Amino acid sequence: MAKVQEKLQAQKLRRKGYSVRDIAALLGVSKGSVSAWCREIKLTKSQAHRLKQRQISAGNTGRQKGAEANRQKRLQVIAYETNQAKKRIASLDNRDLLLLGVGLYWGEGVKTRSGPAALVNSDPKLLLLGKRWFEECLGVTTMEFQPYIYISHLHKSRTKEIVAYWSALLELPQEQFHQPIILKHTTKKRYSNHNNYYGVVALRVRKSSRLKYYIQGLISSVAN
Q1: Phi, psi at residue 213, to the nearest 5°?
Q2: CA–CA distance from 224 to each of 109, 110, 217, 221 (Å)?
Q3: How far apart (Å, rounded) are the C-alpha atoms in residues 122 and 21?
Q4: Burial level of 14, CB count in 10 A (0-12/13-18/19+)?
Q5: What gap in Å lies between CA 108 and CA 110, rounded to an integer?
Q6: Which of 73, 89, 121, 193 is most buried, taking the most CB atoms under 10 A from its CB?
Q7: What is the largest CA-CA distance in the chain?
């Protein structure tokens, strides 16, 4: 008798446009049973359309939840590994900083025979570390820096803003910066925000040919 009542209730719900899944959940029976009981019942076009839209919506919601779950998992992994890395590094002593700077200059420094020593990059954190290395490990004074800024012609109108940005970041007077160099070619990197672009900086040290030879010696010592 109970099965008969469930069948009748299932058919009633189906005629109202409920999905087989929803009916099974409401009555606490299997989807197979509901499917068999309601096989002969045809949904109207509007009912079928609503069910299809609900399925699409449910699918999108499921994908969004899955994407968010994956994002949260990734953030947890990043946080954990970042914390482990910080524990391992702890703090840098002078020798640590010296060797780190040697590697930095090896990859990003000017190594030509003539001209001053300079680190060239657009990454603010890298340049700050480079400045610290020059000062703490190589004895370069604040007054000895003469940065060059290379700016795409697309950002020429922002020249003053860009110079002010690097001056504040590196804690160097704007008067010590060389006249910005405007590049005619278009930068390869695209910025979602036009104002996030600050060019490339060559953190140069005045009259530092001899210092550059010393740095090259450090690099040679590490390489060999």
Answers
A1: -65, -40
A2: 19, 20, 10, 5
A3: 56
A4: buried
A5: 7
A6: 121
A7: 100
Domain count, the chain: 1
What is the per-residue pLDDT across 45-55, written as a single tens digit (0 to 9) for each? 888 888 888 88
CA separation, residue 94 to residues 75, 118, 170, 220 (Å):
33, 20, 20, 19
- The gap from C-alpha 16 to its chain's centroid, in whole angstroms, comes to 49
Q: Are 7 and 1 in contact (CB under 8 A)?
A: no
pTM > 0.70: yes or no: no
Residue 123, in any domain of the structure: yes
In a domain, 120, yes or no: yes
As a residue count, the chain comes to 224
For 154, the domain range is 94-223
222, 99 contact by CB (below 8 A): yes
**For the ranges 43-52, 123-132, 137-146, 195-204, which has the lowest average pLDDT?**
43-52
Side-chain half-sphere exposure of 192, counting CA atoms within 13 A = 0
Residues 131, 145: contact at Cβ < 8 Å? yes
In a domain, 104, yes or no: yes
Alpha helix (H) residue ranges in the chain: 2-15, 20-27, 31-37, 45-89, 94-108, 124-138, 159-170, 209-223
